[in-house]
Design a protein that fits this description.
The complex is a heterodimer of chains A (298) and B (241).
Chain A (H helix, E strand, L loop, with lengths): L16 H8 L3 H36 L3 H16 L2 H24 L8 E2 L2 E2 L14 H34 L2 H9 L4 H31 L11 H9 L15 H31 L5 H10 L1
Chain B lengths: L1 H13 L10 E6 L2 E2 L3 E3 L5 E2 L1 H12 L3 E6 L5 H6 L5 E2 L7 H4 L3 E2 L7 E8 L10 E5 L3 H8 L3 E5 L2 H9 L5 E5 H10 L3 E10 L6 E2 L4 H16 L2 H8 L7
Parallel strand pairs in B: 1-5, 1-6, 9-10, 9-11
Antiparallel strand pairs in B: 2-3, 3-4, 6-13, 7-13, 8-11, 8-12
Classes of the chains: A mainly alpha (298), B alpha/beta (241).
Keywords (chain B): Signal
Protein name (chain B): Amino acid ABC transporter
InterPro entries (chain B): Solute-binding_3/MltF_N
Chain lengths: 298, 241
């Protein structure tokens, strides 16, 4: 069934042991699973900085002296943090997709007379479909991935905004005052004094968020993206001889065990990296940890 | 923030603009976890009775089709939202679903569903705890009969619940359970088959009557020349037309 990597895999029913396993683990389906690890890592790599940017924008907006801007910032953190993740991932993404299509519809098909909502259906003109109906599969996949990144970023950005607001408040007032005494403007004290110093206070909260984000990636399948948990569930499911060359019982435990190892290794690695960043950020800070570093070096 | 939102909006608006026009593609949504109806084969592609059926229907209706997999729980919301154009996922035609979506003519007879339990267990179905996949006709049938129902996201989990002793029997399509009963020594059918639902059809948006009629016509032509029966026999789905 299909192409195989090793020539001896053409008839798996005749082989056993390690040889069988080597064939089994290189089926097209398993290769798809290995790729999905890349999908998850890519999602994390893009989402983390984007969410941080959303969080920074949210935190800055919440601190603004202009009331409406501050309401937007505070409203964003309050609403998004309050909505259950699963509701967000099931319905918000569909709503977001419909919003984009509706905007495109208004721009591209001004002559359209039928209503957009027909009963339960959401119908826009063909040119407004996103991606277009005839687009290649990879375009659909990329778009779905983009929606996933955006949704994850909005959700985790709200939490990050809250962490950063706290961190901004934690920077000692005396530091800012010193800046002001040197004649810095508000903008200058913000960018030159507060922002460089706030990270050390934000890091514990942000590293927590990072860990939660790693574990939230299985929500990807709700968005139609085949992630590692989806594949583990599918590959581990009981396979009867009729539908596969590699029949086996319920092996989900082994697949999930592999995922457990992956997630544990990944979080351990994250801890090591975050620890290093923390040491770096503490350097020369007016905190107890910064003081301890100074004494140790002296 | 503003730049991000603006950037996002621009990307969204321009995405795929270069690929405009051309022959439209009909996207078929399936679950990919319900053999023999639909499953992902060793090569990682959608396979099964509905793969063969869907490809043949598209050929007869002269449509270019593409396969998409989607989680069962969100399979209807994504259809009405337009992320694909048809559901072909062993979905039985029921009044409840007809309120939300439309169906083509059925391409299987009303489903014979069956109870699968541990081979050595003596199950009294009237008082048994029944496992079923959530949002299926079997789950609502069992609930309607006043049974205690445990619902699971995937069919695999509902079978695992019986093995784990969490449930006494699983109620699902006989065609799905039969290969399991055959291959696994510890599982066996119990009780009588039950006929639920109005057969399996393709789910289509209510506003998309044109596509519905095209597929219905293709199904009728497959019924007329016996090719549908041949597929049903090949995949051991159940009763013939």
């Amino acid at each position: 069934m299909g192409a195989t990597i090793f020539s001896y895999c053409s008839d798996p029913s005749t082989i056993e042991g390690l040889k069988w396993l080597s064939c089994y683990l290189t089926t097209g389906k398993h290769i798809s699973m290995y790729w999905s690890f890349g999908t998850v890592l890519l999602l994390l790599a893009i989402t983390a900085p984007t969410a941080l940017a959303f969080g920074f924008a949210g935190a800055t907006a919440a601190r603004s002296r202009i009331a409406p801007v501050s309401w937007i910032g505070k409203g964003y953190t309050a609403i998004v943090r309050g909505v259950p993740d699963i509701a967000f991932f099931l319905f918000f993404v569909i709503a977001l997709d419909q919003l984009f299509e509706w905007i495109r519809h208004e721009v591209k098909c001004p002559d359209w007379t039928d209503p957009i909502r027909q009963g339960n259906d959401f119908v826009v003109c063909t040119e407004a479909k996103l991606p277009l109906g005839n687009a290649a599969a990879w375009v659909h996949d990329t778009y779905a991935f983009f929606l996933a990144v955006l949704t994850f970023s909005i959700v985790f950005g709200a939490f990050a905004a809250n962490v950063l607001t706290g961190a901004m408040r934690a920077v000692p007032r005396a530091q800012i005052e010193t800046g002001e005494a040197y004649g810095m403007t508000e903008r200058q004290t913000f960018w030159r004094i507060m922002v460089p110093q706030m990270w050390v206070y934000a890091l514990p909260g942000l590293s927590n968020l990072w860990m939660v984000l790693i574990k939230a990636t299985p929500l990807l399948f709700l968005l139609g993206i085949e992630d590692i948990v989806y594949w583990a569930r599918d590959l581990g499911a009981t396979k009867t001889p009729k539908f596969t060359d590699y029949p086996h019982g319920d092996w989900r435990m082994w697949y999930f065990l592999a995922l457990l190892v992956f997630y544990l290794c990944f979080t351990k690695l994250s801890e090591i990296v975050l620890d290093r960043i923390n040491r770096r950020l503490t350097l020369g800070q007016a905190t107890a940890a910064g003081e301890a570093q100074r004494k140790a070096a002296a | 923030m503003k730049k991000l939102i603006l950037g996002t909006a621009i990307t969204a608006l321009t995405a795929g603009a270069a690929l405009a026009e051309g022959h439209s593609v009909v996207r078929l949504g399936t679950e990919g976890a319900y053999p023999p109806y639909n499953f992902i084969n060793d090569a990682g592609e959608v396979d099964g009775f509905e793969r063969a059926l869907g490809d043949e229907l598209c050929a007869r209706a002269e449509l270019t089709c593409e396969w998409v997999t989607n989680d069962w729980d969100s399979i209807i919301p994504n259809l009405v939202s337009g992320n694909y154009d048809a559901i072909i996922a062993g979905m039985s035609i029921t009044d409840e679903r007809l309120e939300v979506i439309d169906f083509t003519e059925n391409y299987t007879q009303p489903d014979p569903s069956a109870y699968l339990a541990l081979a050595d267990a003596d199950v009294d179905l009237s008082s048994a705890v029944i496992a079923a996949q959530a949002a299926t006709i079997q789950a609502s049938y069992a609930a309607g009969e006043g049974m205690t129902v445990l619902e699971f996201a995937t069919p695999e989990e509902s079978v695992a619940a019986v093995r784990a002793g969490e449930a006494d029997a699983v109620l699902a399509d006989r065609a799905y359970l039969a290969p399991l009963a055959e291959a696994e020594a510890d599982l066996a059918f119990t009780g009588e088959n039950v006929l639920i639902g109005g057969g399996v059809g393709m789910g289509i948006r209510q506003s998309d009557t044109e596509l519905r009629d095209k597929f219905t016509a293709a199904i009728q032509s497959m019924k007329a020349d016996g090719s549908l029966n041949a597929l049903i026999e090949e995949w051991e789905i159940g009763e013939l037309f």
